[in-house]
């Protein structure tokens, strides 16, 4: 074994309206095998990065930005459900054109034509991208009357709501259409799944053979034609907000991820494909350890491995060879690799689908690279040859998956029912072995990952230590993920604790207990289990989103709590009392409310604990914001000290951090080494925030002089991570020595907060990615937060480096966040943690928000 870990690398002539198939493309000389490289430690940000590239390329279609979201997917009426799509303006800059692939603007006309071609084809708009482009969901199935569709919905609901009854339902066994979901182009510069999907739709629409008729009579095939139109147009991995969408589960910060989540909830796919590139040979999941511990891995492995074998055969049957075409044989990581391409985190689309009932879901990586440097440097003929091969392979794995689903329809549905039945019954998971999963070779102890689900979770009401706003956000997120939540109508006792009326209860005897546990559990330290991880390893929303969450392990005799199901959290906004008002700044929504007040010119003061004091004269504005953001303003007699001011942030940050800053209502001015060297007007900024893309030593003399003038005027600086710490040292700001932990480390860690203006009200846990800590602090440098003593890692993967240093024991008790006054007179805050990571750890955002407010003062 010992194969290096593979990595998803960052990364046409316009079709005539109504044209259905792409013309075959010519072949040229075979390329060399693609190389693999380690994944980057941190995402990049700032102008010139994928976010900026997306924005520039999308300007030609910017007329769609900000248009209202379409209505939710229909659940009524029969099939076909035809939608006449509006065609976007032709965009000759669409990056797919060079590859001989379908530009985004050609999709609507082609889908309109396909709907006219056959009553098997329906198109709906599932949502809009970050830049406003429509997301097209195609359903291919045999026509259904309204009555037949209602019966399908009844059976779908029964499978989730009453799986024991569903297992005995004869109509389900004979007539339920297996939902298959094919997701394409979630990474915008991994194009070919979209084109293969268009070909497949037409083939199924036109086919006259009995097997196709049987397939469509027994299955519904859902195809997200392009999950990332922004990136498809711009030739970027990310969407228009700069996000890698295949890292956005289970946060779902982006509209594209939310649309896919809703498809999963509404359609309940049993089988799923996610089409990617580029790994040569074609990579087909299932994966290496560690395996997600919260889903029924025995049922999943049984189906995903068998389907992978079918896909492998289909790819091989195409006849591509290394010598003739440069195409290596397919790789199934579970079988062919020891570790390095895991299915542990729920942030990837196929892994998320397993929590929504999929018993086979796969990432498939096409072999022939056509993006990044290859896109820019290879001849067009070679790029088109490669794209044609990738499209061919994508079509083969799609058809093989449909064959598997048709041939194993009864057992696939039975396994989905069994997945949900175990959850409702509260049964233990089945460890995988060659006995429990017959037919899958090579299962060993290294593949066994199970968890013990608690009996329930409680999100208490009236907890003064945590914001009701955070609790409501967490409840709404649970509901959006199809987790069943109830709200107590009266006070109750559970496992020796008393809870007031209004507390939220998640009974873990439910079909989708896996996704509930993924969201609420603290997670697991897997540092000892594998040497390396493909991406992040810890993500607990229960610890990182700012709400109090109690885990109830065992209850004798059932829950018996007087409660009602909730569709949304109860309102939390309020203005209580008379006179001046206190606004706690523990939550991003509270920061957003504050920034709104400051934008309106309200004179807000700073309290000693970091909260905000709002004058009584602004009571009307406070009431509006309490309702809008769900935040609480409470009467106070404290007058506060210094004034808070609207803060304009010059930000050299990642796209996720930029998104989080704007979520808190800050005015963000993106900067980088390049933008400063080109000339930047520092009079527009109040504070500098550096985490990515800015090197002090790389500034030209004019840029450095301008920046030094800004800093010497008393402006504050907030930095994060190694890039930020290096900037602090090079600029001579705060005397603190940064010490780097293992660069591959990430996860949820325990911390001790000093309180006060920056970490007052902060949770007792934070998130780290390539963690730092600070030593050799000069007099006057304040420790705002420290890593916990002992081993601070709660969940994730954090080992010492090869030389034995950089592990969690080295970080224990060390300063993770420090502050002070720089030699140039401004306030400086240094973070060794990742409180804004990918817009995910909501309960940590306020630490950065408070730091920026203090630094600007």
UniProtKB/TrEMBL annotation:
- Alphabetically list the UniProt keywords: Hydrolase, Metalloprotease, Protease, Signal, Zinc
For activity, the cofactor(s) needed are: Zn(2+)
Which residues are named in the active-site annotation? 365
According to the entry, every stretch annotated as the Peptidase M14 domain falls at 100-401
User: Could you state a single Gene Ontology molecular function term?
Assistant: zinc ion binding
- In this chain, the stretch annotated as Disordered covers 30-91, 426-445, 794-817
Name used for this protein in its record: Peptidase M28
Instruction: Identify the Gene3D superfamilies for this entry.
Output: Zn peptidases (3.40.630.10)
* UniProt keyword Coiled coil present: no
Q: Which residues form the signal peptide?
A: 1-29
**Membrane-crossing residues?**
none
Q: Can you tell me which family this protein belongs to?
A: Belongs to the peptidase M14 family.
């Amino acid at each position: 074994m010992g194969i290096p870990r593979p990595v998803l690398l960052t990364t046409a002539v316009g079709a005539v309206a109504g044209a259905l198939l792409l013309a075959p493309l010519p072949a040229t000389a075979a390329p060399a095998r693609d190389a693999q490289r380690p994944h980057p430690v941190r995402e990049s940000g700032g102008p010139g990065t994928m976010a900026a590239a997306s924005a520039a390329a999308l300007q030609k279609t910017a007329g769609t930005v900000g248009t209202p979201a379409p209505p939710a997917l229909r659940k009524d009426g029969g099939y076909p459900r035809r939608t006449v799509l509006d065609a976007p303006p032709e965009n000759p800059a669409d990056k797919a054109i060079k590859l001989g692939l379908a530009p985004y603007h050609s999709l609507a006309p082609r889908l309109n034509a396909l709907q006219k071609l056959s009553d098997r084809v329906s198109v709906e708009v599932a949502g809009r991208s970050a830049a406003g482009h429509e997301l097209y969901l195609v359903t291919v199935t045999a026509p259904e009357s309204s009555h037949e569709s209602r019966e399908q919905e009844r059976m779908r609901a029964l499978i989730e709501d009453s799986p024991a009854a569903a297992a005995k339902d004869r109509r389900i066994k004979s007539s339920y259409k297996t939902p298959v979901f094919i997701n394409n182009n979630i990474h915008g510069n991994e194009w070919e799944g979209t084109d293969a999907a268009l070909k497949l739709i037409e083939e199924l629409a036109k086919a006259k053979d009995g097997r196709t008729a049987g397939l469509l009579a027994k299955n519904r095939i859902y195809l997200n034609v392009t999950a990332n139109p922004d990136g498809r147009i711009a030739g970027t991995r990310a969407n228009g907000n700069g996000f890698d969408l295949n890292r956005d589960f289970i946060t779902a910060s982006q509209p594209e991820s939310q649309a896919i989540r809703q498809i999963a909830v509404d359609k309940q796919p049993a089988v799923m494909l996610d089409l990617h590139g580029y790994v040569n040979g074609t990579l087909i999941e299932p994966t290496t350890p560690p395996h997600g511990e919260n889903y029924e891995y025995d049922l999943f492995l049984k189906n995903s491995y068998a389907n992978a074998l079918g896909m492998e055969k289909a790819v091989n049957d195409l006849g591509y060879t290394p010598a003739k075409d440069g195409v290596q044989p397919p790789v199934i990581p579970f079988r062919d690799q020891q570790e390095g391409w895991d299915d542990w985190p729920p942030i990837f689309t196929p892994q998320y689908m397993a929590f929504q009932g999929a018993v086979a879901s796969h990432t498939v990586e096409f072999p022939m690279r056509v993006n990044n440097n290859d896109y820019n440097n290879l001849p067009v003929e070679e790029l088109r040859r490669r794209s044609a091969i990738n499209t061919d392979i994508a079509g083969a794995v799609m058809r093989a998956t449909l064959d598997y689903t048709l041939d194993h329809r009864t057992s696939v549905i039975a396994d989905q029912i069994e997945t949900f039945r175990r959850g409702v019954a509260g049964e233990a998971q089945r460890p995988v072995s060659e006995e429990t999963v017959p037919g899958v070779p090579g299962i060993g102890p290294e593949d066994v990952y199970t968890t013990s689900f608690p009996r329930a979770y409680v999100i208490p009401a009236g907890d003064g230590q945590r914001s009701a706003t955070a609790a409501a956000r967490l409840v709404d997120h649970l509901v959006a993920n199809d987790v069943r939540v109830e709200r107590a109508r009266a006070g109750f006792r559970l496992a020796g604790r008393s809870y007031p009326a209004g507390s939220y209860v998640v009974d873990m005897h439910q079909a989708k207990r896996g996704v509930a546990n993924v969201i609420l559990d603290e997670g697991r330290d897997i540092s000892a289990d594998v040497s390396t991880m493909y991406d992040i390893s810890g993500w607990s929303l229960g610890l990182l989103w700012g709400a109090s969450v109690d885990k109830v392990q065992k209850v004798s005799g059932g829950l018996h709590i007087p409660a009602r199901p909730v569709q949304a959290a109860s309102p939390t906004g309020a203005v209580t009392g008379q006179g001046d008002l206190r606004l706690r700044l523990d939550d991003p929504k509270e920061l957003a409310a504050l920034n709104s007040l400051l934008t309106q010119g309200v004179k807000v003061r700073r309290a000693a604990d970091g909260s905000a004091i709002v004058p009584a004269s602004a009571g009307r504005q406070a009431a509006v914001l309490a309702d809008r953001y769900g935040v609480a303003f409470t009467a106070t007699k404290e007058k506060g000290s210094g004034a808070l001011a609207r803060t304009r942030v010059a930000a050299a940050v990642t796209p996720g951090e930029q998104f989080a800053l704007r979520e808190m209502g800050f005015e963000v001015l993106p900067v980088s080494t390049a933008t400063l060297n080109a000339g930047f007007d520092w009079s527009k900024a109040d504070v500098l925030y550096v985490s990515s893309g800015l090197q002090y030593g790389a500034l030209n003399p004019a840029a450095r002089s301008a920046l030094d003038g800004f800093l010497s005027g008393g402006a504050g600086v907030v930095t994060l991570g190694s890039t930020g710490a290096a900037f602090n040292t090079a600029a001579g700001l705060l005397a603190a020595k940064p010490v780097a932990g293992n660069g591959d480390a990430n996860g949820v860690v325990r911390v001790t907060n000093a309180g006060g203006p920056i970490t007052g009200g902060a949770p007792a846990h934070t998130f780290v990615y390539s963690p730092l800590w600070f030593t050799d602090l000069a007099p006057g440098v304040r420790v705002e937060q420290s890593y916990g003593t002992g081993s601070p890692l709660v969940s994730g993967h954090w080992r010492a480096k090869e030389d034995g240093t950089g592990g969690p024991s080295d970080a224990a008790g060390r300063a993770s966040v420090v502050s002070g006054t720089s030699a140039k007179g401004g306030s400086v805050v240094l973070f060794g943690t990742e409180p804004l990571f990918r817009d995910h750890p909501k309960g940590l955002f306020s630490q950065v928000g408070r730091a920026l407010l203090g630094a600007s003062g």
